Amino acid sequence: MKQIFTHTLASLLLMGLVATQANAQQFSKRKQYSSIGVSLNAMNYFGDIVPKTSLPSFRVAATRPNIGVYYMHRFAPRISAKVALNYGRISGDDAKAADPNGADSRYRYNRNMNFRNDIVELSGMAVFDLIENRNNYLKRPDFVPYLTAGIAVFHHNPKGADANGDYVQLQPLQTEGVDYSLTQFAIPFGGGVRYRINKSFDIGLELITRKTFTDYLDDVSGTFVERNTLAPGAAQYFGHDITNSVRNNTSDFPSFTEAGQRRGKDGNDWYTTLGVTVNYILAPRVKNPKFR
């Protein structure tokens, strides 16, 4: 996955530079145009609370909705810039994702962690069309595949369901003794296709994956800490007592929650959206020449 990400981003940057240099002067301002749109997506994440610990494992039943709005401006025959605001939710549950009889997954099933996380994301991205349009928006191609990449900032707030089913904010509990930030950066990249309906509207299908720089979208990352270093109540429950071996007072997993024992895997979390876009083109004003 890391190699795919690196190669995709490098290819986008190279193609963008070449296309911009070759086409910028040939694409007059009269042919440039802007558009606004909405996206309706399915949202999921890759992290610690998934069926398998390797990318790109995810649980289909954990998919949650995501909605977005965006503004896009075309600068060149292949190049556009896009600013988007998205809101959505990711979730995970060891009791539903992990196989209790699997050689490795049974440890995660015993961990019994769950979470949901609402994410608000603001992104800026470059869009590279694989089919160019040297004309104005009225003569744009009917079908256009494209690649996209950029940078995003997002706010998240993981919560977990306690023994009563009530959701509790997890970041203030510092279940692993880490005071991580709820505002983070990500690198979104992906692609899609657009289809022209009429002169003003396009519909499309788009897949965007985000590489984040945090391993705490699910509040699970490192190792267990001493129980008595956690605040009584919710912190001790989510940091220690939630595990099945503790709740059921069994010896099936000896030393499971001792300080220093692994609670999560190495590597940062990712999240992704797959959905439909509806794009409305803002017809540019045509300036009539002045006669003297």
Automatic annotation (TrEMBL):
Residues 28-219 form the DUF6089 domain. Pfam families: DUF6089. Residues 1-24 form the signal peptide. InterPro entries: DUF6089. It comes from the Bacteria. Keywords: Signal. This is Porin family protein.
